[in-house]
Amino acid sequence: MKKFELAFIFLITMGPLSTAAVTEDTLLSQARDIFSPIPATPPSMLGVTHAAEKLELGKMLYFEPRLSASHLISCNTCHNVGLAGADLQETSVGHSWKKGPRNAPTVLNAVFNSSQFWDGRAKNLTEQAKGPIQAAVEMNNKPEKVIETVQSMPDYVNRFAAAYPESANPVTFDNIAETIALFESQLITPDAPFDRFLKGDGKALTDAERSGLALFMDSNCVSCHNGMNLGGKAFFRFGVQVKPAAELLADDTGRFKVTGKEGDKFVFRVPTLRNIGLTAPYFHSGKTWNLADATRIMAKSQLDLDLTPPEVQHLESFLLTLTGKQPEVIHPLLPASTPKTPRPEL
Amino acid sequence: MKKFELAFIFLITMGPLSTAAVTEDTLLSQARDIFSPIPATPPSMLGVTHAAEKLELGKMLYFEPRLSASHLISCNTCHNVGLAGADLQETSVGHSWKKGPRNAPTVLNAVFNSSQFWDGRAKNLTEQAKGPIQAAVEMNNKPEKVIETVQSMPDYVNRFAAAYPESANPVTFDNIAETIALFESQLITPDAPFDRFLKGDGKALTDAERSGLALFMDSNCVSCHNGMNLGGKAFFRFGVQVKPAAELLADDTGRFKVTGKEGDKFVFRVPTLRNIGLTAPYFHSGKTWNLADATRIMAKSQLDLDLTPPEVQHLESFLLTLTGKQPEVIHPLLPASTPKTPRPEL
């Protein structure tokens, strides 16, 4: 029996569907065309040799403050697994208490982004991991010193040998970044109410949340915020329609700094909206602390829409359904420094 | 049958004991008179009401950077559970990248100390916890703002209500400190090789380690470093016999600052030697990075002993047997800030 015949029989048997049911069904199928749920389990490690060894090593290095010149700052400092993979700052604070230029994007679900950093200058997490370690306003270190540091601790040397047995010299900056990236790839947040909705759980969203979702799709927020991460892929100018005010930092020209193309001025990679309820403050500038404000600003700057208060409320309700199950991380135990370990430089 | 009769029969039956066996037995009984093992399980919560709620809350607050004015520094920053409960600095670095006056003592097994801080100015962990939160060179916060911060997040408010159901106003600075202290009280490191030796495992220590232990006792290191924590109780001048040089900071008069007594100048609380192999650099000044150097300096300054290289080696071997099983901590998930949460102040 073909599908449409089955549907026809169903209609005859059950009588006309209620408007609500039709609407709900339409909302779901519309949403499924645009979004997809975060998978229940992290990306497979099937193609990765010695995956368990690399993952544990990556976790250790993610929490390792000795990757920074000061021995005070680790990946987890700005991408805190207890704070939805971000920090609590407008823009991150690093070496010497220097304020960096941009707000820390969450590490959670970052593996599903097409590129990394606000300007998309890293094509993947491995490339990304090398950036902050060397940035003067972040960890302020040098690859040679990072290698010397890791190499100075027998526990790390042994773990690298076990993770890369085919390599005669496994403690490399590339391998350090790769193991960190592998650990990060496992930091996903499945099972948000919105994911359960996408998977067919009709009770996953409240009426207000459904209204917010409908508005989110109908107002074209989804031109940028679509896919599994509701963002993380395309690049758009902040101010497609109306140039925002304080939220845009005058000296941060975004992707223009990467490509040098005039058209890329104030263009940024669309951020994910996953766990947005946990990651204030917002925007690359971190100038907006409130999700309702951020929603209003986006609607105006990108779509030239003046949202009514109930619209803002519904959109915010929907955005809060994007908070998923946060990853559980057992804090790693890091090896003791040795006389060969470079001393912290403040 | 009385004990000595049994021993007598044993001697007759087995013939004279070998010298080695006698020595070993003597070493163990001598050690048992001076030391005791870290218990297998943390201090009981039997007398504590709603212990589970308080412990989880304490863990969250221990990792909570919003207890600091900057929202960048938590208890775990300087007492990192992945770094044997300490940091990697000579003296800790806090708010505004300011260098504090003293080296961070480990939080591990701190519950077994008679007092807290290098000068013993806090009588317990609860009192201790209040210090760094307010210190200008550490978290630089004020109790009122800490309370306002915690109170701004419904998840914390609910957790305090569940942990202190008898209280109408449970979010207090005292309760914040108490829950942190309760969490810290569970951070113990049992099952070090030395603990297994004390419990009667004859194979727990190597010959070199046993020689080190014998020397440690016979040279009178144990005048200060005794008990369960091999320290953490008594107060002694750094330089009982010979004033040390660079290791003593001229302007840090230690316990004199607390008591104002002339005799307390340069007096410090004896630090624990538990996990000493993991917590370089050493002394309140953090000026000594190497355990062998620290051992030599201590022997000279406190006992006027000039150790030979083999003696240093044996002592170091023994000290490394004090590394116990580190606590496993699942990183807590912290609630999102709300519009009522005070913003970070850098």
Dominant shape of chain A: globular
Q: Structural class of chain A, please?
A: mainly alpha
* Sheet of most strands of chain A: 2 strands, antiparallel
Compute the CA-based radius of gyration of chain A.
23 Å
Largest interface: A-B, 39 and 39 residues
Helix tally of chain A equals 13
What is the residue-averaged pLDDT of chain A? 93
Which consecutive residue ranges of chain A, at least 5 long each, have pLDDT under 50?
A: 1-19
- The proportion of strand residues of chain A reads under 5%
Compressed to H and E, one letter per element, the order of chain A equals HHHHEEHHHHHHEHEHH
Helix content of chain A: 25-40%
Oligomer: homodimer
Break the fold down into its secondary structure elements and pairings:
Two copies of one chain form a homodimer.
Chain A: H1 3-14, H2 19-34, H3 51-62, H4 75-78, E1 93-94, E2 98-99, H5 125-134, H6 143-151, H7 154-163, H8 173-185, H9 193-198, H10 207-218, E3 235-237, H11 256-259, E4 267-269, H12 291-303, H13 309-319
Antiparallel strand pairs in A: 1-2, 3-4
Helix pairs in contact in A: 2-10, 3-7, 3-8, 5-8, 10-13, 12-13
